[in-house]
Specification:
single chain, alpha+beta, three-stranded mixed beta sheet, 4 helices
């Protein structure tokens, strides 16, 4: 979709659930399963891998909700971003600590 619309800016956020919501209740009952931090990084990897931009697209994953901060411009920074993601998958200690993911 990012490629198809020719986006000039893409900001990625990670789901954070408020405790007083139906979806939070679904997590507690097992009806909904959230991605783990590493699964979220894998999702970032799929997005970057499969985005084929014809023009410059600024990509940011620097919101307070994100486990991994990414900053780059596609397609120019694609390989660097994929290396950063690969590094995080190999060493999850570089991910943002849970207590710092706040809104």
């Amino acid at each position: 979709m990012i490629s198809a619309v020719g986006a000039s800016y893409v900001g990625l956020l990670t789901l954070m659930l408020a405790t007083d919501t139906p979806l939070y209740d679904d997590v507690l009952t097992g009806k909904f399963v959230q991605l783990t931090p590493l699964e979220t990084v894998g999702e970032l990897e799929m997005i970057v891998e499969h985005t084929d931009c014809a023009k410059d697209t600024i990509l940011r994953s620097n919101h307070a909700s994100n486990w991994l901060e990414l900053k780059g411009t596609l397609p120019h920074d694609k390989e660097r971003l994929l290396k950063q993601i690969s590094s995080a998958k190999s060493d999850p200690s570089v991910l943002k600590p849970r207590h710092l993911r706040r809104l």
